[in-house]
Amino acid sequence: MNYDEFLNNIRMLSRGETPGQDMTELLQTHNCGCLLSQEKRDLTADTLNKICIGERFRACKAVFAAFEENNIPYAVIKGAVLSEMAYGDAFCRRSGDIDLLLLRENIDMAKQIMLNCGFVQGRVTDEGIVPFNRRELLFQISASHQTAPFIKKTANPVCPYVNVDVNLDIFWGESDVKADMPFVLEHTECAEINGLKLKKLTPELEFIALCLHHYKDANSIYLLWQKGLSLSLFCDIYFYLKNNRLNLQSLKAACRHLQAEDFVYYCVYYCNEIFNDGLLAPCLEALKTETSERNLNAFGLEKAERKPWNISFAERLFSGCLKQYFEKVLSPEDLQKIKINSELM
């Protein structure tokens, strides 16, 4: 497998050029429709995605209104708001839920609002929504930065259930660093998705939250075991920077305040490894610190589980064999953690 050829083709596609090799199958596998020409996109899947996004936001209209009425600071993150900012199209990027960012101190009031609006904390089964038990609820909030998901049944056969994830931090659950969430949620602005007005983070804070989320996906042993490393993570970062003129001084100051510089640097660094675009250089320069490169060639979110990569970045991205790689290098404790997460998450 010629990984260098893959990278060259992806760079050509990002510039609007047509490579000699058909990359459709790989890009669909990596959920990178943004790089596909209109005639090669799965138009049926695009239409279904648009219908589902519309249904999700309709289901949350009363929730957002109640948050406003009760002065609960919130922001919608990832999903359609990210797609709008990164790709200029709320429906370009496929997603399966709505993600909210809330202060921990407001979670009880927010939960009651969600329940009043017809949501249930549970999972979808063949029998419908099954509420989580107390153990599962406690595990979710203690082991991650999220509460257990909220689910609502709809009357739409295309999107029969709406899933809302409530995030209480922009860092992941295992992180030693916890974000100053009042600071984060002071930086919001109004937006509109599918005709619904809502709150989102300002671009610099939204970009930091995006990078922290994608750093987690690119370093979590559990997520890498389950899903592998996806090109879509780096497409989001690249096109966000390409299509938004961020204030790099404000970005640097916010990163420093949140102790996020090295994690954001990691994401932009590997984004540049893929796209090799000069527009990323000023961002890398602004974010660089004495410790910027310490995270670059290792994986694992906790210090005790961090291990060096023994394969190249391109191989991690394109080989599709990370599970086999991990079977050789993970400890019994790591494998047990994956098993527990699979059972309870």
3D architecture notes:
The model has no long low-confidence stretch (mean pLDDT 92). The protein folds into three domains: 3-43, no CATH class; 55-201, Beta Polymerase, domain 2 (2-Layer Sandwich); 203-345, no CATH class. The chain has helices at residues 3-14, 24-29, 43-69, 79-87, 107-116, 134-143, 181-186, 203-219, 221-227, 231-243, 248-258, 261-275, 281-287, 313-318, 322-329, 332-344; strands at 74-77, 98-102, 120-125, 128-131, 150-153, 161-167, 188-193, 196-201, 298-299, 307-308. Strands 1-2-6-5-3-4 form a six-stranded mixed β-sheet, with helices on both faces. It has a two-stranded antiparallel sheet with strand order 7-8. A two-stranded antiparallel sheet has the order 9-10. It starts with a helix and ends with a helix. The relative contact order is 0.12. It has 345 residues and is of the alpha+beta class. α11 packs parallel to α13. The longest helix has 27 residues, at 43-69. The chain is globular. InterPro entries: NTP_transf_5. This is Nucleotidyltransferase family protein.
List the helices and strands and how they pair.
Elements lengths: L2 H12 L9 H6 L13 H27 L4 E4 L1 H9 L10 E5 L4 H10 L3 E6 L2 E4 L2 H10 L6 E4 L7 E7 L13 H6 L1 E6 L2 E6 L1 H17 L1 H7 L3 H13 L4 H11 L2 H15 L5 H7 L10 E2 L7 E2 L4 H6 L3 H8 L2 H13 L1
Parallel strand pairs: 2-6
Antiparallel strand pairs: 1-2, 3-4, 3-5, 5-6, 7-8, 9-10
Helix pairs in contact: 4-10, 8-10, 8-11, 8-12, 10-12, 11-13, 12-13
